[in-house]
Amino acid sequence: MSETSTAALIHDVRWEIDYRVRLGRAWSRFMRGLRDRKLLASTCDHCDRTYLPPQSYCEACYEPITRWQECEPVGTLRTATIVYQGFDGGPQAPYAVGAIEIDGTHSLLMHFVGGVDLSDVDAARKALRGGVRVRAVWADERTAAITDIAHFAVAPAQP
Amino acid sequence: MSSTPVPPDGDAAADGSTTDPVAEPVTIQGHWDFGYTYFAGASASRFFNELRLNQRIMGTHCPTCDRVLVPARGFCDACYVEIDEWREVGTEGTLDSFTILTTSFPGLPEPPTVVGYVTLDGASTALLNAVHGIDLHDFDEAGALLLTQPRVRVVFSDKCEGRITDFAFELVAADA
Ligand SMILES: [Zn+2]
Ligand SMILES: [Zn+2]
Predict the structure, then answer these.
(1) Is the Cβ–Cβ distance between B162 and A6 less than 8 Å?
(2) Among A58, A80, A138, B60, which is least packed, fewest CB within 10 Å?
(3) Which residues in B lie closer than 8 A to residue A8 (C-beta atoms)?
(4) What's the pTM?
């Protein structure tokens, strides 16, 4: 039997990739809705689930979806994470990312969560607990992109 | 009222926005350019070192569920227990699943190529790697052959560097 090495294996990696994503039927309509400050969701005729971001097919019954709704840009934060280690091309850390259930939908939208002071970690984690209400803050300049919503702001606590 | 109905798909007349999302989809231009250091961790480091030094494929055995995980992992993904019992698995196995790549991607070999999931003899999980030596002049014919879940063998390259490209699969029947 020859030797066995447990030496740590380390590779230096460089990614340099140009690409283009065509968003397709549902997400194209969704992004163009954002440009007009409209939050559009699709609803399955078969099971009545509403998807936001919208989908052309229902992931529960595999039926095609053609029905659409415009939603109030408010919802409930279901989970969140605070990013302290930035990433090339990403926003300046720290920032918060959350999974948001828009009212009347049965899915989660990932987006930035703002309006919380992230310098105090413990306070920020409390403020970003699941169940808090959030509202979309529209970007001034909108280009049919997900960043047409600047972030979702945590609603101030009710007095 | 938290939501209001809007016109269905394909009803451009009723829909104020007349841009057809199928004919004119929103397109995102992307550019990734970043470098990083990949540390393989204890189990994967040993797995890759075994390829380089001994030209053998190693898995780890979970005593709780009695599975051999390949490539070797430090934890069982079914039982969440730490595992450290190393086993060499066979150099032949079954092609469970595959895809034929027809579009080029930076850093990958020129298409068309085949990538497959192979469960090696003695392993409980499938291992992803290139499948060489398939005649790809006719994709339907190649696909029909690969769908039979043929037996494949591991072939090591002449110069092993401790990377997954140190080996590839080829059909056992190819030279029968
Ligand atoms: Zn459905
Ligand atoms: Zn196990």
Answers:
(1) no
(2) A138
(3) 39-40, 42, 45
(4) 0.73
